[in-house]
Design brief:
The protein is mainly alpha-helical and about 220 residues long. The protein has one domain: 3 helical TM bundles of succinate and fumarate reductases. Helix content is about 80%, strand content about 0%. Helix 4 packs antiparallel against helix 5 and helix 8 packs antiparallel against helix 9. The chain is globular. The model has no long low-confidence stretch (mean pLDDT about 90). It binds protoporphyrin IX containing FE.
Length: about 220
């Protein structure tokens, strides 16, 4: 396993495959995360969300392992992206790529680096400032989420961040399949549609939370 990982990390295509796999894993995390967050809509007093959080906490050390694993996958995804970007820059300097192809690849990878970095800025505020490392959140989970997202400045920040996440997913989902070799003239248009669908689903799905709590929440969660 370690040998396989070492081999994969030493080649450009291996890095791309690992980048694709970590990215697809993060999409699975997003699916679990949005489903968990849906409990915020279940009742007005926040009991369903608070119960969901307590259920997660009842896993004790297992939850810690999952959190560390999630952090490691995020870190690997980012480090691989930076390494590949540097390698591509070197390759371009040596004029390996065909000229016409080069412009397109560069624009796409540059936009992935930009949207990815912005998602990272979002994650810092989201995880460190707003929730995971905010003691107020652990004292009153549902109330803190609702109060945080109902502030106009936060709601605007979250909605913009979800739009950027959508752009990142639209291209990332599609190219992840290309990296793992799932590319065929018949399959490619379907993957294009699937990438757009996944991006819209998550961006709009997550954006409903700040929009709902900004415009329709009248207070009262515990
Ligand atoms: C606007 C919709 C969202 C809401 C309401 C929301 C809510 C939350 C809450 C309450 C937590 C703290 C969990 C806990 O420790 O009990 C959390 C953690 C987290 N969220 Fe979100 N989230 C949203 C969108 C996102 C998005 C789009 C991403 C990824 C791009 C994301 C990534 C994370 C991560 C990585 C954590 C840390 C997980 C951990 O505790 O280990 N969230 N979120």
């Amino acid at each position: 396993m370690l040998r396989w990982l070492g081999n994969a990390l030493s080649s450009s295509i291996g890095k791309k495959i690992l980048m694709a796999l970590t990215g697809l894993f993060l999409v699975v995390f997003l699916a679990e995360h949005i489903l968990g967050n849906l409990t915020l809509y279940k009742d007005a007093d926040g009991t369903a969300f608070n119960d969901y959080k307590h259920t997660l906490e009842s896993f004790g050390p297992l939850l810690k392992v999952a959190e560390i694993g999630l952090f490691a996958v995020f870190a690997a995804h980012i480090v691989l992206a930076l390494k590949l970007a540097l390698e591509n820059r070197e390759a371009r300097k040596q004029k390996y790529a065909v000229r016409a192809h080069r412009g397109k690849a560069t624009a796409a990878s540059l936009s992935m680096l930009i949207t990815g970095s912005l998602v990272l800025v979002y994650l810092f505020k989201h995880v460190v400032i707003d929730f995971r490392f905010n003691s107020a959140y652990h004292e009153a989970p549902a109330a803190t989420v609702k109060e945080t997202l109902s502030k106009p400045s936060n709601a605007t920040f979250y909605v913009l961040a979800m739009a950027i996440l959508g752009l990142h997913l639209a291209h990332g989902f599609r190219s992840a399949f290309q990296s793992i070799g799932a590319s065929h003239p018949k399959l490619d248009p379907l993957l294009e549609i699937a990438g757009t669908a996944v991006a819209v689903l998550f961006a709009v799905g997550f954006a409903t939370f700040p929009i709902y709590f900004l415009f329709f929440w009248t207070g009262g969660a515990s």
